[in-house]
Each structure stands twice: as C-alpha cells, then as structure tokens.
Specification:
CATH superfamily of the largest domain: Metalloenzyme, LuxS/M16 peptidase-like
CATH topology of the largest domain: Cytochrome Bc1 Complex, Chain A, domain 1
Order of helices and strands: EEEHEHEEHEHHHHEHEEHEEHHHHEE
Number of domains: 2
Distance between the termini: 49 Å
Radius of gyration: 22 Å
Strand order of the largest sheet: 1-2-8-3-6-5
Shape: globular
Amino acid sequence: MSPFFPPRLLAAPAILLAAAPLAAQPAPVQFTLANGLQVAFQPEPGARALTAVLAFPAGVRGDAAGQEGLAALAPLALRLGGGGLYGYRDVDEQFENLGASVEAEAGSDFTALQLRIFPQDLRPVLAILGALLKAPIYPDLRAGFARARREAAVDPQTLAFSGLLASEGSGPWRKADMQALRAWQGARWNPAHGRLLVTGPIGAEELKAQLAAALEGWKAGDPPPASGPRALPARGGFYQRLDPGVVPTVVLAGVPVAGEAEETALDLALATLEASAESKAGSIECKAGPGWRALRGKLSAGAGSAELQRLKEDLVRLGQRGLDAPRFAEQLARWRERRLVEGLDAERVLLRAARTAIRGPVAEPTLEGVNAILKRLLRPEEIRILVVGGGAKALPGATVLKD
C-alpha cells in the first residue's frame, strides 16, 4: 500500500456513500515507472474523463539563496512556454483541440500540474506533457507575462506581490533568467521525487504502458539539496509599483507562509477581517498566492500612507490578540464546508492527496495553534504592503519597484 495514496482517500464524501458504497470502488493500483516516478491510480469506470495531478516537493520556501522566486515562476513559465516540437501557441492549440486542460500550481512546499483528459486523447496529451517535462522551451518571460495579463490569465497585482515576497523585486523573478529556470526544473521536477495521482476510466496496464512510452527520456537528474526550507529574512516594508493603467489604486498587505498549517491559519484569520470589514482601507478581500497570504483592497481617491498604515495596524492587532472562540468556530465551520465541497471535485481531491503526499497529513486547525501562528507571522517587521497604481508619483515612504 502506498503511503501517499490511501485507498479510501478518493472515496465519495459521506453524503454520497449510500448511493455509491465504498465497497463497490475498484481497488487502487500503485506502480513505479523506470525513471522512478511513483504512480497511484484509482479506476473509475463510470467517469467521462481522466483527472491527474503531478506533484513535486519543490515549493517557494525551499528556493536557494539568490534564486528566490523560481518555484513560483517555473510552473507559470512552463505554461507560457512549450516543450520539444511544441511552442507556446502549439501547446495551447493542441490542448484546446483535444478538449484537455492543464493548470499549474505552486505552494510554499510543493508545485503541481493538474490535467483533465478524455480517455481517447490520452496518448497525444501525454506526448505533449512528456515534451514539456523533457525539453521545456521558455519564452521571453517579460513578453509572456505581458501577454498573460492581457489575456486575463494572470492577476497582475498578485503576480507582482508574489515577486515582491519571493525576491523583493530582484533575482530570477525580475531578471526572467531562463537558464536558471531550466536548471531549477531539471533538479526539482525530478521523476524520482515526484508523485503522479490519476483517476478515470482506463485499465491500469494500459495507463502504465502509455505513461512509460510518453515519459521515456524524462530521467532523474541530481537530487535536490537536502537542506530544509530556507527561512525568509524579516523584510516588512512599504512598496509601490507605479502603473497608471490601474485605477483605482490597488493595495495588498500580507506575509510569507510556509506549509499548510500556516496557510490555513492565515486563511481563517484574514477571512474574519474580510467579513467584519475591520480594515479602514476600503473594501477588502482575502488573496492567496504561492507561499503568501494577503488582504487586497482598493484605495479611495486621495488616500495616502496613513490609510495604508491603518491597514497594517489592523493586521498587527489581529496577530497580537488572535481569534476569539466564536470567530474561530465560525471560520472553522466554513473551512470544513469548503473541504466537503472540494470532496465533490475530483481535481481538488487529487490535489489535496498530492499535497498530503508531499507534506504529510496535517491536523485540523485548533484555536491555540492558529493564534500561535498569527502571533509569529503578523508582526510589523514581517508585513509587506504593496501598492499598484497611483499614476506617475509614488506615495511618501514607498520603495518603488520596477519591472
């Protein structure tokens, strides 16, 4: 039995068990390809499509010094690029023609590709995936990001904030270092350290044969460094990216996070600010990115540094006092509800399983644990504030970031 793919993990939620008894589920199958990639497959004879998640233990907090931001950048760059004989447009057109989809996700301690494929198109889709993994072609990343923004595929504010938290506006993120990206992917997206989780209507032997053929040549490179996650230095501050096209001005305030416990704690806590509108910086919403959590809002006309300071003070007070029992209970109930809803989505269930494979099981959050995390993270020296927009003149005290 594979420790990263519990046989009952993909079972229907309890509300569906009466209609689909767990005993009727075919047994999961685990196998390892010649290149070391561990595969876990849950047959689903009645499904219309295959769902797959390919995950690696390579998150933004594990980036080496001087290469901050590569873990967050690589999955996006891969989708903006191509592989083998496939260029950017070819990859997009091929996936669209085949009715397939591929998404990339980066976390504080993992990165993953998510795919949805019709069974009759598995062979050509795997051929494209193999090309992306074996011979990635990265485009001019500056042009690629600009195109992605125009196509609304990337949120320019959260993209800028990811760059800020990863590298303070410097390093590979800003330089678009394609050589560093290729080296990172070769070392970190190593099949010997990867996990591929698949569900769908196909036989195990056929799946194994097609995977072996498509991923032949994707070989294990040097193992990633054995050192643990690198702790980011405390670099709280006030930054601004001047963008006359962003009206009204957008502000994000947040902190880096490492691991699911910190992510969940910030999700629960920031949701209380969003719901209660405690912040004085206009309407706000929670935002999540690879290795960070933040509040995002729109500054009112004429707002300045004092309004941003009040937003920071709200976060600091939240860290000092923590959540009270009623608010924690309310947010925990919503968190459980979201988890249940995710259990109805095969892609989200697989992604959760992949995260468990990489991170190990994470206990349900407790009030004491959440408040301890908030006290540690929501400190003045940790909180970053990023303003995007505001015309050609920066707000007083802001460090201007340049693309």
